[in-house]
Amino acid sequence: MVEGEGVKQALGAAPWGSRLLGPAEEGAMSRRVRVQVLLTVPLIGANLIGIAVAMVLIGVVLPGPSVFTRRLVLLNFVATPLYAALALLLGMVWGTVWGLRTLRWSTDPDRIPDAEERHAAARVPRRLVVQQALLWLGGMAVLTPLYGLADPAFVPKFVLGIGSSAIVVCANSYLAAEFALRPVTARVLDAAPSRQLRGIGVFGRSALVWMLGSGTPVALLMVVAILALSGVDISTERLAVCVLSLGGATLVFGGLLMTQTLGATVAPIRSVRNALRRVEDGDLEAAVTVYDGTELGELQSGFNRMVLGLREREQIRDLFGRHVGHDVAAAALQRNPELGGEELDAAAIFIDIIGSTTMAATRPAREIVTILNDFFGIVVDEVERYGGLLNKFEGDAALAVFGTPALLPDAAGSALAATRAIRQRLASETTEFDAGIGVAAGRVVAGNVGAHRRYEFTVIGDAVNEAARLCELAKSDEHRVLASASTVDAAAAAEQKHWDIGESVTLRGRIQPTRLARPRR
Length: 521
Hints:
By secondary structure, this protein is an alpha+beta fold. The chain has 17 helices and eight strands. It has helices at about 1-10, 30-60, 75-100, 115-120, 125-150, 155-180, 180-190, 200-230, 235-280, 295-325, 325-335, 355-360, 365-385, 410-430, 460-475, 485-490, 495, and strands at about 340-355, 390-395, 395-400, 435-450, 455-460, 480-485, 500-505, 515-520. A hairpin with an 8-residue loop joins strand 7 and strand 8. Mean pLDDT is about 80; it is low at about 1-10.
């Protein structure tokens, strides 16, 4: 899987977008403890802050009778703290037990979650929010009637105070749970990268932050204004306190929540950006861990699929180059290849192992393959070192061309130099074979030959045929290397001095005699 490779290959100290979530190589048990702490501490903190906000709203900000009276001592210092403590304890135990049971599979690093476990893990943030909401609604259902019995005017204060605090706590709990569960989300997406998105999305996160940071405080201000307009006695001082308190909450909590949301949005983008830089530097093993269940996760996953495609393309390109030669491959990729060719001057080397038929009949096939690989390894090394192209492997023989498709200033000289180098290595290195080599240069046609659906690059011309016939003759020559004198004449002077011109012979299948040349000893 693309994402599976991403989880294993993602580098850096923050594979899930934050160092708080630990490194990729962290142990399963340490990660479980880390996730549990990051999940429990922020939720408890959010509830404590929510309780404090509710107390401030009810006791100081919202208009109405004061709750700080003697007849409400038992409610203020016994009933309310008792319910808050019980709700915190119940929420912590309830959430922890249920969460551990739901995410038990995540403690095994090699475990691949099934469909039911994946769906349950994706629902964890929402389920935690539902739990928080039920506990806050329970507080509203218990405390509002108790205070309402003392004075019915307390009812709207408690409904507004507890309700607005519940919204703040639940929304913040969702964002905190999403953050803490990124390593789990990464494994869920790794197991099912094509699943439908189950998060609230980037738009949903932005709307949530607006509702938390701006919508709720502004709504409370509007309620206070409505109460004032409806005839409720609200002093100027109380109205000023409401505006300043809710305005300050909008600035402080809105800024903090916007920072949290921007961090959740920017982290996946930053991981993709850093990985893109690695790809630009030529590292096609770059990958990102997909840990976001929103559109940003699709961005991460899409990047991994793109890099996988680039890796496959590069592998095909390399394989293509190995089969036809990198120069031929580069030419084919630069322009639209078509059947046919062009006439030009080039040189050809034909090399064939001596006694290969007897060797094949007396030795195991696997041993023959090893011998051929050693032989062709020498040939390819020297041909490419002098700028040539190994055009064909023909059993125990090979054809190399110089001057096409990559042009050479001295194709004949390069072919002759490569021939001498091959012969020297075959004679000096410990090999179990010998070979005849023929070299010729002249006018040839180089291009693609075959059919529209299957063709190959080749070189056709009298020089190629002449090189093949010289190779046959070289097998019985003591030098094992024969070139045509015209090829030596076409080479640069620096190469000509390494060759001696000899007799003329009429090669098999040819009419005109060919004057031979041999490397000077």
